[in-house]
Amino acid sequence: MMLKKIAKAAGLTISFVAALMTVEGSVSMSTAEDKTPVDMIVHGRYVVTMDDAKGVIEGGAVAVKDGAIVAVGTNAEIASAYSTDNEIAGDDRVLMPGLVNGHTHTAMTLFRGMADDLELMTWLTTYIFPMEGRYVDPEFIRIGSELACWEMIQSGTTSFVDMYFYPEEIAGVVDKCGLRAVITAPMIDYPSPGFKGWDDSFAAGVKFVQDWQGKNARITPGLAPHAPYTVSKEHLADVAKVARELGAPISIHVAEDKSELDTIEGKYQQTSIEELADVGMLDAQVIAAHVVWPSDSDMELVAGKSFAAIHNPTSNMKTGAGFSPVPKLLEAGVTVGLATDGAASNNNLNMWDEIHLAALIHKGVATDPTVLPAATALDLATRMGAKAAGLEGVTGALKPGLRADMIQVSVDSLRMQPLYDVVSQLVYVADQQDVVTTIVDGKLLMADGKVLTIDEADLRARVLEISARIRADVDLLK
């Protein structure tokens, strides 16, 4: 009956209309069959790729297969080439790479707010080191690391560099929660949780790297000599040698505080960075936390090396350490990442705070509003941040071939209006509560603001139980 009506209206025979519909149907079917099936397609009102070739795509999407990005384009381009049963809508959302936290101490979330407004060395020696001696054990690490991972997933951090005790426990938590991490084993010349001193901490660190290399694609094991003022020059040379042999990254606090400069100058008549060069550490991959006080010659020394300076604006201001000369480091050709530091010296793991501060601090220091523009600040937390963590070619941008580590940031609240420049809005307005989706390696870790891989109620109970014990002991130290 329908064919008769169509044919009559068009003045055509029924057989011609039937043949035409058959041809059109077969074309549509062929088009559907020609589409490449993928595991997931994620959309965004804006797609901030952090890839120079793509830039910002309005009305875009990313196709994901086997945990990797296979295509980035407009909604129409992706829809024409790919099919999936799993689509995440992007209405009033920015789709962008997940954030990279270049330096933290995950389990120190359990020391959050324990001792504040103190000079760095007083804070360390009077509160942190004694409390670590009393409380840091595998259970403490598991609870504190899980709390940190929940906070990072919730705020859009998908990769982080960690330096803390019992790294195998941290790796276990990361394995379960789904994040990506460079986990480095701490080494120090003095007694520390689980160790009598240098020899056993060094041996354990080397074993950790050997045990975890190649074990989990999301976990990169490394070595973490604490700092030049807590590890002798001889021992730093040992770390540099074994890191080169194993191809492992080194995470270390460097040029963080003026007192460190005085200590190293007094011992060796050189800067901390010159000491690293002396022991051969600059021939390995170095993730150098803080770098607040590098000299001009220090910057020339590390430029072009596998050396990254990790900027910790909140922590460095809170401890009174100063301001890392990030614009000068970048101008010298030094790779720079961004980080929160641990929650005991921040007091949160919110990378949006660090992005915002990085974009503002250096304008004020230089009295120049053009210094460190919004796009550069965002780069420090994504593409360049990934390079700083040794994850270049893995994450940091939305680009085919990279792993599918990405987040959606909601821009539908009234405080996000009007929206003229999406990158500016991310840097100067967005915060952790705006993150609604977190994906790592193509796996959904948070949907509509709900963390999926960690039991929040169970974690809360364990955190409250151990923090009650810590609070009682902190009161005795005051």
Automatic annotation (TrEMBL):
Named cofactor requirement(s): Zn(2+)
According to the UniProt record, what class of enzyme is this? hydrolase
Q: Where is the Amidohydrolase-related domain?
A: 94-444
SUPFAM superfamilies in the record, alphabetically? Composite domain of metallo-dependent hydrolases, Metallo-dependent hydrolases
InterPro entries reported for this sequence: Amidohydro-rel (IPR006680), Deaminase_MtaD/DadD (IPR023512), Metal-dep_hydrolase_composite (IPR011059), Metal_Hydrolase (IPR032466), MTA/SAH_deaminase (IPR050287)
Q: What is its EC number?
A: 3.5.4.28, 3.5.4.31
Q: What keywords are annotated for this sequence in UniProt?
A: Hydrolase, Metal-binding, Signal, Zinc
What reactions does this protein catalyze?
A: S-methyl-5'-thioadenosine + H2O + H(+) = S-methyl-5'-thioinosine + NH4(+); S-adenosyl-L-homocysteine + H2O + H(+) = S-inosyl-L-homocysteine + NH4(+)
Sequence positions that bind substrate: E132, H226, E256, D341
Q: Which domain of life is it from?
A: Bacteria
Keyword NADP carried by entry: no
Gene Ontology terms, MF aspect = 5'-methylthioadenosine deaminase activity; metal ion binding; S-adenosylhomocysteine deaminase activity
Q: Tell me which positions the record assigns to the signal sequence.
A: 1-20
Keyword check for Coiled coil: no
Q: How is the cofactor bound?
A: Binds 1 zinc ion per subunit.
Pfam hit, one? Amidohydro_1
Amino acids binding Zn(2+): H103, H105, H253, D341
What is this protein's function?
Answer: Catalyzes the deamination of 5-methylthioadenosine and S-adenosyl-L-homocysteine into 5-methylthioinosine and S-inosyl-L-homocysteine, respectively. Is also able to deaminate adenosine.
Question: So what family is this one in?
Answer: Belongs to the metallo-dependent hydrolases superfamily. ATZ/TRZ family. Belongs to the metallo-dependent hydrolases superfamily. MTA/SAH deaminase family.
Q: Which HAMAP family match?
A: MTA_SAH_deamin
Which protein is depicted? 5-methylthioadenosine/S-adenosylhomocysteine deaminase
UniProt source species: Kordiimonas lacus
